[in-house]
Amino acid sequence: MSNLSNFVKRIRDIMRNDAGINGDAQRIEQIAWMLFLKVYESKELDWEVEVDDYQSIIPENCRWRNWASDDRSGSALTGDHLMNFVNNTLFPTLKGLEVNAQTPIKKAIVRTAFEDANNYMKDGVLLRQVLNIIDELDLGDYEESHAFGEIYESILRELQSAGSSGEFYTPRAVTDFMARMIKPKIGETVADFACGTGGFLISWLKELEQSIKTTEDQENYSKSIYGIEKKQFPYMLCITNMLLHGIDVPKVYHDNSLTKDILDYTDADRFDVVLMNPPYGGNEKVDVKNHFPQDLASSETADLFLSVIMYRLKKNGRAAVIIPDGFLFGTDNAKAAIKKKLFSEFNLHTVIRMPHSVFSPYTSITTNILFFERTKPTTETWFYRLDMPEGYKNFSKTKPMKLDHFAPAFEWWNDRQELSEGGFDKAKKFTVEEITSRNYNIDLCGYPHEEEEILPPKDLIQQYQEKRASLNADIDRILEKITTILGLEVAEDSQT
Q1: Which of 427, 448, 469 lies at the terminal end of a domain, its last residue?
Q2: In a domain, 146, yes or no
Q3: Could you give the CA distance from residue 199 to residue 242 in angstroms, rounded to a whole number?
Q4: By Cβ atoms counted within 10 A, which residue in 45, 169, 226, 455 is the most buried?
């Protein structure tokens, strides 16, 4: 396909003329369901060769080849006939596919992907033009399929600026760094319990692919991922992503990880590795807390996910998890209990403090990466501050974070030394005794010289709330020390 590099632009230009498309979020969702069906069609062509008497779950009249492909004979559906078919036949059929516990995953995903999907376009002629561009993709060609994988990444990146959909995308530089540091091994399974569009799973597969030597390795590679995504739209994008990357049976489920009793998990529910960026600042139903022990029942989704991770990580397993600053300095009862469990039952060996605006323009909240293992209680934890690269004041859509920007962290990781700059700690090791004495306030090796920046009101309020919480935590810790000292002195005075 000669115009692969202009793929997204060509479709965008057509959709701008359609009265039914209102903004980037709807445009991307419109592209998503069509791409899913095109990619699924490509996979079915392979399965028809590999499996005797292969039967598609999609009825013949709704398979891509029979309604979307245009053989240029003039018989392809277009205009009102196309709109009528899509709205009154295609969508009702795919949403109503019969699926049960015996339905193979690679078939069941079709219905799941379309459960809440929508067709926003209203002009059948414009829809035909978009379908023809998508149908030009030759996903059976390895080079073109690989190239399109990169194009698909650009579509996912656009989610950052497509309203609330931005929560589903973690910059690829971050997922690649975490996957590289976690060092995947053939035979291991990785999980992401809020997998969004599948960025962490793809980064895992890219790292693991380098270790494939045999047919057995390839089979283990294909079975190495597990994901759960609550929202239908990112779920569809994730499934498409997995199919594009050669995972024919993607174990990715449309579900909510927080609605299961975490005390019910057994060894069969645990994984060797967890890589994820838990949603934070989100709202869940009040009864979600009932699925957690009382001391861990936080109102913050990131806290709840961290508890899920701890309960679902195998013995000797390891995890890399993104957490907002609020978790580090928070000392309320639930956060303190979660951190106490983390330090006493897991080895939290490294905390990477990431620079601000990594997730810009979606949010300005500063985040951190926790690296821990289910091997032994923590005895010491390293904190490392990754500074903004030279020449950058902020990351942005046009100047996103790159994997190269992690170079100082890569270099420090294998030769750990305590570092300071301008009298402030940049890298430092703290004992678990020092950490517990701070009531698990682990806001350490932070950013001392942050420049004032103009933020949207919502982010500004949240930033002030976080700073106030951090100050309150420090004041509480100091008051507790003073009270203890005074208490001892009072006791001594009473004896004299």
Answers
A1: 448
A2: yes
A3: 10
A4: 169
Distance CA 62, CA 65 (A): 8
Are residues 431 and 301 located together in one domain of the fold? yes
CATH value at residue 399: 3.40.50.150
| Comparison of pLDDT for 60 and 1, the residue scoring more | 60
CB crowding 339-363: b at 16 or more within 10 Å, else e: bebbbeebbbbbbbbbbbbbbbebb
Q: Which CATH number does the domain housing residue 109 bear? A: 1.20.1260.30
Of 154, 177, 195, the one marking the end of a domain is 154
List, edge to edge, every strand of the sheet that includes 190-192.
Answer: 252-254, 225-229, 190-192, 271-276, 313-324, 367-373, 347-353, 380-385, 424-431, 419-421
**Cβ proximity of 353 and 368 under 8 Å:** yes
Specify whether the CB–CB gap between 325 and 280 falls below 8 A: no
344 and 268, same domain (yes or no): yes
Structural domains in the chain (count): 2
CA-to-CA dists, residue 388 to 393, 396, 405, 458, 490, angstroms: 7, 12, 8, 24, 49
CA angle 472, 476, 478 (to 5 degrees): 115
Structure tokens, 465: 């709330």
Decide: helix, strand or coil at residue 384: strand
CB proximity list for 414: less than 8 A, separation 6 or greater: none
Q: What is the dihedral of CA 435, 440, 444, 450, to 10 degrees?
A: -170
Neighbour-count burial of 270, counting CB atoms closer than 10 A to its CB (0-12 exposed, 13-18 middle, 19+ buried): middle
Among 279, 270, 449, smallest CA distance to 356 is for 449
The answer on 256 and 195 residing in a single domain is yes
* Domain co-membership, 117 together with 261: no
Give the tens place of pLDDT for each residue, 286-314.
Answer: 789 999 999 999 888 999 999 999 999 99
Question: Which residue's entry shows tokens 């047919």?
Answer: 215
- Pick the closest to residue 197 from 46, 69, 36 (CA basis): 36
Task: Quick: pLDDT tens for 102-157.
Answer: 999 999 999 999 998 999 999 999 999 999 999 999 888 878 887 888 788 777 77
473: in domain? no
Specify whether the CB–CB gap between 84 and 100 falls below 8 A: no
Residue 411 counted as domain residue: yes
pLDDT above 60 (res 166) = no
Residue 316 lies in a domain: yes
Give the helix ranges, DSSP H, for 5-114.
Answer: 7-15, 24-50, 64-67, 79-85, 91-95, 105-114
Domain of residue 122: give its range: 4-154
Same domain? 135 vs 181: no
Do 282 and 212 lie in a common domain? Answer: yes
Residue 143 to residue 145: CA distance in whole angstroms: 5
Residue identified by tokens 């996912």 is 156
